[in-house]
Specification:
This is (2Fe-2S) ferredoxin domain-containing protein. This protein is an alpha/beta fold. It has a domain at 13-105: Glutaredoxin (3-Layer(aba) Sandwich). It is 22% helix and 23% strand. It has a 5-stranded mixed beta sheet. The model is unreliable at 1-6, 109-117 and 124-133 (pLDDT under 50).
Length: 133
């Protein structure tokens, strides 16, 4: 699949997870976040469409959270999310699934009035896809 072509199944999505944050949040389940996310996505039939990759530091360094960058073929710049790996991993999963399958249920209520680019905190504020600029 090249140039975002997923055979009509949706968009290709990249999920970059900060390794440094994973190490710091090991007690709260951060260390297992990429493996858990990849497993859940595979169960939903998205293993070949979504790539979850631990990466170097993204210079955000939130306390007790993990920095995650989610991008897709329609939004290559992506969304920078600050995720509590213990409390918000299901929200992250729904957000990623929504990016891969635009027809999937929204991650949070209120989808439509997208905030500006930048950091988003899952749980503190609704997470939305940015629509048209």
């Amino acid at each position: 699949m090249q140039n975002g072509d997923t055979g009509g199944k949706g968009r290709e999505v990249d999920v970059l997870v900060c390794r440094k944050c994973l190490g710091k949040s090991a007690r709260s389940g951060g260390q297992d976040l990429p493996r858990w996310l990849q497993g859940e996505l595979a169960e939903r039939g998205l293993a070949g469409q979504v790539r979850v990759t631990p990466t170097g530091c993204m210079n955000q360094c939130p306390r007790r959270q993990v920095t995650v960058l989610v991008s897709d073929t329609d939004d290559p710049e992506g969304r920078l999310l600050l995720v509590d790996p213990r409390l918000q991993r299901d929200l992250l999963l729904k957000f990623v699934e929504r990016r891969a399958r635009p027809d999937a249920p929204a991650a949070t209520p209120g989808d439509g009035d997208a905030p500006g680019r930048g950091q988003e905190h899952l749980g503190d504020e609704p997470v939305h896809e940015e629509r048209g600029q």
